[in-house]
Amino acid sequence: MFRFICLFLSVLFLYSCALKPVQVTKNTDFKQYKYAYINSSNTVTSVSSYTDYNSYSHSYSQHVNPSEYIAGFLMKNDILIINQIKQPKKTLIVNYGQSGKRNIAGGLFGYTLEVTVQFIDASSHNLIAKCSAEGFGGSEVEDIRQAIDRCLQSLM
To answer: Cβ-count burial of 36 within 10 angstroms (0-12 exposed, 13-18 middle, 19+ buried)?
Structure first.
């Protein structure tokens, strides 16, 4: 009976930890765009602390600014990041937002965060592409980084 319960809990844990597939809408190829204007986002900070075996308390923090993280990804893919739109026909407007939070096993094992990244043509304001993805890490910062990575890699 103990083995059955352990097996059941293991299957439940693995099933509930599975991230939802990345949702992608792609209307136009990115290769025609040379520039990206990225709307700014706030920095997200996660703070963790622990006490070691000598009863010393330690803490550390992690930070991520989603717009800077997205900018780095686009730069690696040869898209120039600009501060001002001068050539709208060759420019993407990039928006970022957190779009959901899902408890895993009723919150027993934490939660996933979902982000959505949107790419808009600067001249027509038509949707070029959009992706939504979940991330599951040891902190909110890791969740966001993983979700952005999954999202953007599915578009490129």
So the answer is: buried
What integer pLDDT is reported at residue 111 of this predicted model? Answer: 82
DSSP 69: H
Q: Tens of pLDDT along 41-67?
A: 888 877 777 777 777 787 878 888 999
Strands 127-135 and 80-82: unpaired
DSSP annotation of 109 reads T
Alpha-helix residue ranges (DSSP H) falling in the chain: 2-17, 66-76, 140-155
d(CA 47, CA 60): 6
Cα dihedral across residues 39, 36, 64, 118: positive or negative: positive
